[in-house]
Amino acid sequence: MALSKQEIAQRIAQELQDKTYVNLGIGIPTLVANYIPEGIEVEFQSENGLLGMGPFPIEGTEDADLINAGKQTVTILDGGSLFDSATSFAMIRGQHVQLTVLGAMEVAENGDIANWKIPGRMVKGMGGAMDLVASAENIIVAMMHTNKRGESKLLKNCSLPLTGVGCVKKVVSNLAVMEIKDGAFHLLERAPGVTVEEIQNATEGTLIVNGEIPEMKL
To answer: Is residue 41 annotated as a catalytic residue, yes or no?
Structure first.
């Protein structure tokens, strides 16, 4: 059974490492803050100028002045700080953010990512994605494996304008966990109840399958 958006975020949270700085992109990535594993301390950064972001607020306790880059209301943990965009992007470009979790429209087998524009459609802007993919040590993508027409979003080559080149290290989709290396998607885990064949059929790019592929544990 394919994962929900919440379950994708829950699986990505397992990739968090203690005492690291993490930027969460708009969409599915913002949900990761709700699933921090026990014993792990991370500092979530939002490029609009927030460090120490916590989980989403309980309904009725929202502060309209406290938002993330996607304009969603968030919480701030004790010791958190607020600052301007110039300071935020100095932090990003200075490579002080170790992990970035982003959504994507397309990812290519060589690690290219397209996540900011579909030609011919209105777009608010590229946001901080290009700075983030150029600066973070590790890029993990959270995405749906196929589009609404059932076409693969994991491709040999991206067809949309690129956000970054050869930068994605791992993809967690609603069907699978894949590592990108040596110009291919390497299947690491499959969603509970999803077969390797279903993942292969949904992946246009080169998919390497070695041995028995375990189911994800959430």
So the answer is: no
